[in-house]
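Listing 4. Sequential folding, example run.
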Amino acid sequence: MKNRTIALILSILCIFTFCGLPAYAQERTAEFETGPAPDWFRPLLAEADFMVRSLSGGGSPLNESLLVMHGGKLVYERYARGWDKDTPHVMFSITKSVVSALVGIAIQEGKIKGVDQKAWDFFKDDVVLAPGQESKKDITIKHLLTMSSGLPGDDDDQEVEWWNASASSGEALDSGVAAFSIPQVAASGERFAYSSGPGAQALACLVSRAVGMNLFEYAKKKLFEPLGMTSVRWDAAADGNNYGGFGIYMTSRDMMRFGLLYLNNGRWEGKQIIPADYVAATPPPSKLNQDYGYMFWDFADLTCIEIPHLKNAYYASGSFGQFICILPESDTVIVRTGSAGQLVRTLSKAILGNPTLNSLFMRLIYPSTSLKGVPLDYLMGAM
């Protein structure tokens, strides 16, 4: 009842939030065919649900876009002022889900033997293990995919500024080597620790090493271009390796294409882009966290949308309310984008611009946040 009340209030707010803004659901384009919404879909409840969901995850209640694809047709598409179908949006941790897809593609091509292959195979020529860290040789790709590698997570107290690692010559080290070199805080397979830093960066660089090319270039060739995802931008660390835990920008429609690929078991226009068995193994639960799979989250904890057949529903998630939700049994994909909001951005930048407040923030607040795996200057620029 409490959630229903919240949903009702937010539904009313939605009317004002989107009053007078363009809706594209009736527009026919070369990219998507539109169609009628299913009986269970209620636009205002959907808007409210994602407001609630984003707030519960520490994000903003503002829906900057919301798209719903059902039965292969676009049934709802809505943008807030300043956003449209051609404007890329920061994805934050949805980047991880893209890296997961690239792992599957590399497996299909034989560049990676499988999820049980050891990560050490790709780093052994460049990483010198510290005493007591020999267990790193046991980390598998599956451990990295399920955040159970034993490398520090975003909530760990250990300093994990892998992006600042540099050689004595002053040149930036390989960020994958720097990430994989950080000491484990647990043996692989023992604990779940969500990581936007070492684990995600090690996996991204591992894939790049496996395929022998820059990760973004590989993604464009094997994933983005085949799907017609032309808006994607992917930021990189100082060494040129693309970030694995964040860094991607794309339009909401390209988010939808990515979601549809998973909804269709890895197939796109008759071609198997990602192995079907890899897609089938992607949704939660994993061994150590029942809500987390191959860099996707469980979607069963709905607040107010009455969608039938939610078994095996899962989603890619990014900070401040980015969602790509795959609902296989409802033949539906839902995409939502949001941000920290102008007020939060303004206050945050004001704090960081004041030396005293900045010092307090860096010593007392930033180390305790779950975003410390992301370089702070990058995070502030992306918000």
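-- end of first protein; second protein begins --
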Amino acid sequence: MNRVTHQPFASFVALALLIVAPFVVPASSRAASRPIREPDALVILSTTDVRGRTDPCGCHVPKGGLARRVSFADSIRATYGQVVLVDDGGFFPDGTVPKATSWFLMDAMTLMGTDAVGTSERELSLGLGYLRSQLRRTRLPMVCANLHERATGKLVLPAYVLKTVGTVKVGIFGLMSPTPDLGPSRDSLQVEEPQAAAVRTVAELRRKGATVVVLLSQLGRMESEDLVATVDGVDAVIIGHGVPLLQKGRTIKHTVACYGGEQGHYIGRTLLRLDAQRRVTSGENEAFMLGPEVPDHKEMARLVRHFTEVTNAAEAKIAPATAAPDSQPHSE
């Protein structure tokens, strides 16, 4: 069983080593050799609640997919020099999708240079040990400011990412809902009340020099809106956890909110305008459908196709061994 389980990973890595280099270049490296385009703007590209989707849906109009996500991000980077790429969390698959999709999505987000990833109960569904092992392997920057170990009170994940994007110092933190089931690790984890964690984390980010603060929220729509209406200092919030798509975002008090839908069918683009001190003066959000008009990024499409082929082959090998006994021919 272990041999079959690990075969997709080995095959994926072998292919990735051959084709990753042409497109996985950090934004800071690309921008270092030339003047920054649109220096008074910061763009946040976001997805949320991807739920294990790696390729377009089988809808009447196929939408989504990793290859289109990379292509769209590249098109934005061609116009704006200061771009942040985030995922709001909720990307682990459910039981109808192979478990391997969880680590594949983590690899893919690392390869495309994702700056920060939020956390939901979905990412704990296979156990905290599994998540930590994959984070050590991929070094994916997952954040959550209110998920603690029950025994020690320590944070399970970093509360935030603080990084310089062009001329802007950006702080990105995550919050998860305290109500859902935390899966196999439920007895060893606890979720802090989100508002207290937000107040503490925003203050720390501002103290460390962040001029733009972004919240990756897995609190749902009402709780996310209530939080940014009462906690000062959040410039943009990506709202997930069963939130319907709004193609045009809203401004709540001083916070630009993105409602990006599910399964990676859309990508949110939050455009923040900055003053001379690189603080936000205004902003707007729009969700763009990743439809057929968005071309596939060839290298990422090859990775997805190879992963799907190898995973399907592995599942086919496992299936006969798990067939029900009464499905075999027998005599009366």
